[in-house]
Amino acid sequence: MPLTSQKTRSGRRKLSELAKHLAVPADITSTMWPSVLKTCTEKLGAEFDDWQDGAGRVMLAKREDGSLAAMIDGVGMSLPRQVGKTHLVGYVAFALCVNIPGLLVIWTAHHSATSTETFLSMQGMAKRVKVAPHIKQVFTGSGDEEVRFHNGSRILFGAREHGFGRGIPGVDVLIFDEAQILSDKAMSNMLATMNTSRFGLQLYIGTPPKPEDRSETFKRMRREALAGTLTDGAWIEFGADADAKDDDRAQWRKMNPSYPKRTPAQSLQRLKRKLTPADWRREGMGIWDDDAEGTRRWSADFWSSVNTEWAPEGGVRSFAVAFSLDGSRLSLAGAVKHEDGVHVELIDAFQGVQERGVDPLADWLAERWRDVSRIAILGTAGAALKAALRDRKVPEQVLHVMSTQDYFAANTMTEDGIKAKAISHPVGAEGDVLNASVAVSDTKRRGMNGQWGWEPTVPDGDETPVEAFCAAYWAARTSKRVPGRKQVLI
User: What are the TM regions of this chain, as residue ranges (predicted)?
Assistant: First the structure.
């Protein structure tokens, strides 16, 4: 059910017409919002603006099996200040607690001041005439802020900077306030609390991050949403145009859908005067900094610490081919294991693999396999390449399709090799493809115990060159096969 194409009630604007960016999960068939909305309006006395009504539909969208459509990746919302997000999220949390007995909600902000401010707002909500009959008790002790309902549901409040939320079992709803300051480590620690929940609603709410913010999770959600790959999550973003003037009232309407009906101009002017110009554009206008440079795991200094102008004259060679997740891109790297370590080079990288096929690469590798210790193949799309190499009589003992654990091991092994100066790679000319890949590839947590993979951090970034680089180093280090012929340079 494509929520963005549904007709709305007379006179109401759809979320897709109001939001700057909107991404909804795939395969939506229904939404819990009507029942939650009914509780909010009839039992709790709430009213919502058009954008809040649309956002409620998206965050509670369901798939055919009845599970939340965004249960895996969650719902991200990049919203300026004073747009009404606490009103929306607060009433949604209260209504869910009323509708689902025994529900456990964790509402966490990065800073204590924000958490305290939010709790005071929810404390006031709990005292309202229509809400109070559902509330059993409000706990106000420092570190024990809680709203408890008669039916056993609870909402707990706390700050991540003090470790709040970790180790609490059976959490059903996680609300990450100030999500622009949320590292992958902090996010992983909190998500573990939801392992036993069948509900599993995650809300990531924040403003565009500052350069110094630890915002891996929030940035990644936005990148995936804009790239159209956030199929198991949702993204709702309000903001002015990137080139908007600070005082353009037409842009104020775009950035803040509650202006001027619920948020008067005076409120925004007051906020503007309290913030620096840069913070006003981020927090007041919802404008993201240019993310064109992306982020990287390996700093420029770390990466260049193993630069070399010279390749070894002899050694045992290995090749590695890394395919992108969709199979449309691949990179080929070669490694030479010599007395002093391993020298690795990117040989080629290209797109359009699905159209061109793997035959040219298979022909190239088949001509060289006798001089190679191992050919490592990374990515599910590599099955076609392995079949093509078999057809060309490349022996099975030369080929190795890397498992997920091999992939994790290759990344950490390569990073350790760079630290130990056991790897070398060419300096690279201006525009070097491998250097460009390293410059925009950052960590994506994919496994337990700190295991990690690579992902591009800009829309056109390519992670396969650095993945092939790591895979080639891993192949050279782990293969015990020694070709019979004299080795030559890559």
Answer: 88-109
Bridge partner list, 137:
148
Residue 292 lies in a domain: no
Tell me the average pLDDT of the chain: 90
Distance CA 335, CA 346 (A): 9
Could you give the C-alpha distances from 252 to 15, 259, 290, in angstroms and in order? Answer: 17, 7, 20
Say what the pTM is. Answer: 0.65
pLDDT digits (tens, 9 = 90+) for 312-334: 888 999 999 999 988 889 999 99
Q: Residue 424 carries which side chain, given as an amino acid letter?
A: S
In the structure encoding, which two tokens stand for residue 67, read together? 């599970």
Structure tokens at 125: 């909500």
Asked if residue 195 and residue 246 are part of one domain, the reply reads yes
Sort 290 into a burial class: Cβ within 10 Å, 0-12 / 13-18 / 19+.
exposed
Question: In the numeric block, which tokens belong to residue 483?
Answer: 């070709």
What is the CA angle 421-426-427, rounded to 5?
95
Q: Where residue 406 sits, what CATH number does that domain have?
A: 3.30.420.240
Counted domains in the chain? 2
**How do strand 233-237 and strand 74-78 relate by DSSP bridges?**
parallel
